[in-house]
Amino acid sequence: MLGWLIVNSFVESKKFHELYEFLKNAAQRYEIDLEIRTSDSLLCHVESDFAEFDLPDFVLFWDKDIFLARRLEQKGLRLFNSASAVETCDNKILTTLCLSHRVPLPKTVIAPKTFEGVNYCNKSFLHRAGEILGYPMILKEACGSFGQQVYLAQNAAEAEQIVDRMGHKDFLMQEFISSSVGRDVRVNVVGDRAVSAMLRYNENDFRSNISNGGSMKPFDLTPRQEQIAVAACRAIGLDFAGVDLLFGPDGDPIVCEVNSNPHFKSSYLCTGVDMSLCILEYIKNAVEGKQ
User: Fold this and answer.
1) What is the model's pTM?
2) Which of 101, 141, 199, 266 is a Cys-bridge partner for 149, taking CB atoms 3.0 to 4.6 Å apart?
3) In a 10 Å sphere around its CB, with 0-12 CB exposed, 13-18 middle and 19+ buried, how is residue 31 labelled?
4) CATH classification for the domain delimited by 93-103+179-284, as one of 3.20.10.10, 3.30.470.20, 3.40.50.300, 3.30.70.3040
């Protein structure tokens, strides 16, 4: 069985390359020939339909190049994860719209659209958002990773300053879940089950991300937490994902984010569960029609 592991051409990071090695080693275990292909290596005329390439049996799409993903699907290739699922997860607004009414979410207000050069020159909408959500308030850029584009505003003045810094970027506003400040649970889901989970916590930041200085320890999921994490993946159409759950005031899980390309090395170091093995086993069974 031949697979392509498609990765970004321009992101050079040890963190990413370690994941690629995990995935290649897992593929070998399941007797899959997994070739790493950078997105630029597949450059070709749009109407050529990749005729110059020997196409694989499947694609493990570890990039966010939605245009390339859609072209490959148009050619008939099966992508793990699909173009639509990756696109949804790469935009927190699309994720919220997809999950709304399906799983518990923080109360959310989506900022109205503006444009480059215009920016949010009229911020009166923040007053209405403050009435709905109260303060402190979370502001999230639609696109971002590792918690770097997530902000906490203690009041309206701070919210305005954050919006000014964001410029014209799409963003959303959410209620601050005080019962989960600096804490969440990363749930790694493959297929219809949670394969591992860890508690992430940070005493010095409202964000729990390990990359922001957070700590981690293994976590035993409740049946409700696993149910919500799996339901979030189903709603988006994901084959695998890292789902971040907050602790609601009553202890009930609240979905914070869903990651289609989870950085699972931290989970591996914490729990001993190699998510790459679970992913490649799932892919092999899916391609062979066993699930």
Assistant:
1) 0.92
2) 141
3) exposed
4) 3.30.470.20
